[in-house]
Specification:
The complex is a heterodimer of chains A (173) and B (122).
Chain A: H1 14-30, E1 34-37, H2 39-47, E2 54-62, E3 67-74, H3 75-86, H4 97-116, E4 126-127, E5 131-134, E6 149-156, E7 159-167
Antiparallel strand pairs in A: 1-6, 2-3, 2-4, 2-5, 3-7, 6-7
Helix pairs in contact in A: 1-4, 3-4
Chain B: E1 3-6, H1 10-22, E2 30-33, H2 36-45, E3 50-53, H3 62-72, E4 79-84, H4 89-94, E5 102-105, H5 110-121
Parallel strand pairs in B: 1-2, 1-3, 3-4, 4-5
Classes of the chains: A alpha+beta (173), B alpha/beta (122).
């Protein structure tokens, strides 16, 4: 019997595999290119944003492993991803906040699904329905990672994106 | 050919509807449901030739929906297609005995869906 992963070192190339999933989803469904970067480059991209208005989506996953995944995306990028994914033309009405949040939740759903589909496991996984929130003006994504957490940073069309994974300690056997 | 799209994301249902339209395959009504419970109600009331369902949904998952469809045996000729972000081997094995004709990974490309729907027309 194998022990469940409880850190990025236990999941084969944890950070890289999340980054790969992010890039795959961005390219295949959103016709966008995600470029992996380090934290310093990510912070630079954050500082360069003309408007620091962020959205955060989070969902939980259960199975082997279990935990949560969240992504932080600038609102301007979310709007761009919406247009790319839906094929919305400029002449069409602006989408409602509900639909835009729906899009970000689905984006996270696909990234998490793509990641977990390639994590070695003996069981099926389940994903919760994503929750999406718009963060207060001036909020920026920053975090000190706990031992059971890892993050993947990237830029999509020059804008910063962070995906953070928290693994449940109960995974330990 | 009536198609029933089952997904708890209104945005995803709209995108799938749009992708179906781009497939250039003759389609009748495109019906929608938010989850498995709603899907069963639609199936009981209208003829459906193609069932496209997500898996992770509230109230009734896609897996539970497919199990109920199989259990009832009321729609033996309906093509069952799963559209999901879960591309794991374990999930596919779980659905192996539920007459799923195609398992399509999200993100979904129009070309893949076109080839699947063309099967029914040819």
């Amino acid at each position: 019997m194998t022990s469940s992963p409880n850190s990025s070192s236990d999941i084969p190339n944890g950070v890289d595999s999340v980054g790969t999933a992010l890039a795959d989803v961005a390219e295949r469904s959103f016709f966008a290119f995600a470029d992996a970067c380090d934290r310093a480059a990510f912070d630079e991209a954050v500082a360069a944003l003309p408007e620091p208005h962020w959205q955060v989506a989070v969902l939980s996953f259960s199975g082997d492993p279990s935990g949560t995944m969240c992504c932080a995306v600038p609102a301007a990028l979310t709007a761009q991803l919406f247009d790319s994914f839906t094929g919305r033309s400029p002449e069409e009405p602006e989408p409602s906040a509900v639909l835009v949040n729906d899009l970000l939740g689905e984006f996270l759903n696909m990234v998490c699904g793509a990641w977990l589909s390639h994590v070695p496991s003996s069981t099926v996984f389940e994903l919760s329905r994503p929750t999406v929130a718009s963060m207060p003006n001036g909020w920026n994504p920053w975090c000190t990672l706990a031992p059971t957490e890892f993050a993947s940073w990237a830029t999509i069309d020059g804008m910063p994106v962070m995906v953070l994974v928290h693994l449940e300690e109960g995974n330990l056997r | 050919m009536n198609i029933l799209i089952v997904d708890d994301s209104a945005m995803m249902r709209a995108v799938l509807r749009r992708v179906i339209g781009l497939c250039d395959v003759p389609v009748g009504a495109i019906l929608e449901a938010n989850n498995g419970v709603e899907a069963l109600k639609v199936l009981e009331q209208q003829p459906v030739e193609v069932l496209m369902t997500d898996l992770n949904m509230p109230e009734m998952t896609g897996t539970a929906l497919l199990r109920e469809v199989e259990r009832r045996g009321t729609w033996p000729d309906m093509m069952r297609i799963v559209v999901s972000s879960d591309g794991s081997v374990q999930r596919r094995e779980e659905l192996a005995d539920l007459n799923v004709r195609h398992y399509l990974d999200k993100p979904l490309s129009p070309e893949v869906l076109r080839d699947v729907l063309t099967e029914l027309v040819v």
